[in-house]
Specification:
two-stranded parallel ribbon, 13 strands, Rossmann fold
Length: 322
């Protein structure tokens, strides 16, 4: 079961029909498990044809393309809450093909919202990106009221979806909650995916490979453990207040160099190798999220500290290798 603050406003999920779009992924499988643990009737929807072996056994599995209206109608039938976790591109890659990023995310999401209205869905909870929607921050930590000037097509698409959610609430009464999530990490994040820096570095360190850091390592990010993110989803779905946008992070920043050093020290791998002249243009220098709003409104706050979180991730990766 998830570790939650005693005052967290989780709500009741007993008998609630919940659909997790992207339910076969890193966050999706963890969310499916947590919802089922709390009594929900859960369906997971994802593109992969084969049911993930680690998906909770009592969750229904539906395979389909997010852009397929017929598959979505089947998935959305009689659902109460929809968790939209589907993402088709990565921030750095999205600038290379912005039209492709738009086509893969915005039209299918609008179609999904139309079907939600038809199906009588009560609420949509959207996994937005706290790391990209704000762009280069004017002040750190970054609050929900900060300007939104994304520097990637990925961030622009996430922001556009937030706006469409607001539009559908205004025009059709479809309730929603946006969670702008920082850099999630933890067990279940496959090291082969290029956006999972913690699992990627840990996996390489276990193989004796030094982390390759593009730049001087001074880029600062906010890392939040998977169980804390899932707890925020549960609190966000139950929330009934006026704030439709909330940050989800640790509230603390870590340089990529310090992250790599902590991870390699943990498993005894070689130290990081810096490449100062090769920083990525899609990266903002500092991104740390202000989490005061979600703490005040829902009682949620992160429960897993950095050292405990990376130890659990390393333990999971070692088990994966057996």
């Amino acid at each position: 079961m998830l570790a939650l603050p005693s005052n967290a406003k989780l709500g009741s999920y007993a008998g609630a029909r919940c659909l997790v779009l992207g339910g076969g992924g890193f966050l999706g499988t963890a969310l499916v498990r947590a919802l089922a643990d709390n009594g929900a009737d859960v369906t997971a929807f994802a593109r992969q044809a084969v049911r993930p072996p680690h998906l909770r056994a009592d969750a229904r599995w539906l395979s389909g393309d997010f852009a397929d209206a017929s598959a979505l109608r089947t998935a959305l039938h009689r659902q109460d809450v929809v968790f939209h976790l589907i993402g088709s591109t990565l921030p750095a890659e999205s600038n290379l093909k912005p039209a492709q990023d738009i086509a893969a995310s915005i039209p299918p999401t609008i179609q999904m919202l139309e079907i939600c209205v038809e199906a009588g869905v009560k609420k949509v909870v959207f996994a937005s990106s706290g790391g990209t929607v704000y762009g280069i921050p004017h002040q750190v930590p970054v609050a929900e009221t900060a300007p939104t000037d994304p520097i990637t097509a990925y961030g622009i698409s996430k922001l556009a979806i937030e706006k469409y959610l607001s539009l559908y609430r205004r025009n059709h009464g479809l309730d929603y909650q946006v969670l702008r999530i920082a850099n999630a990490y933890g067990p279940g994040q496959m090291p082969t995916r290029s956006h999972g820096v913690v699992s990627h570095i840990l996996n390489n360190a276990l193989d004796g490979i030094a982390p390759q850091i593009w730049g001087d390592g001074s880029v600062v990010r906010d890392f939040v453990y998977v169980d804390d993110v899932v707890a925020a989803f549960l609190c966000g779905a139950a929330y009934g207040g006026e704030h439709r946008l909330m940050n989800v992070g640790s509230g603390a920043g870590r340089t990529i160099l310090s992250v790599a050093s902590d991870l390699t020290a943990l498993v005894g791998g070689p130290p990081p190798a810096l490449h100062p002249g090769k920083a990525r243009t899609a990266d903002v220098q500092v991104n740390v999220l202000d989490i005061v709003l979600i703490e005040r409104e829902t009682g949620w706050r992160p429960q897993i500290d950095w050292q405990d979180g990376i130890r659990e991730t390393a333990r999971w990766l070692r088990q994966l290798r057996k």
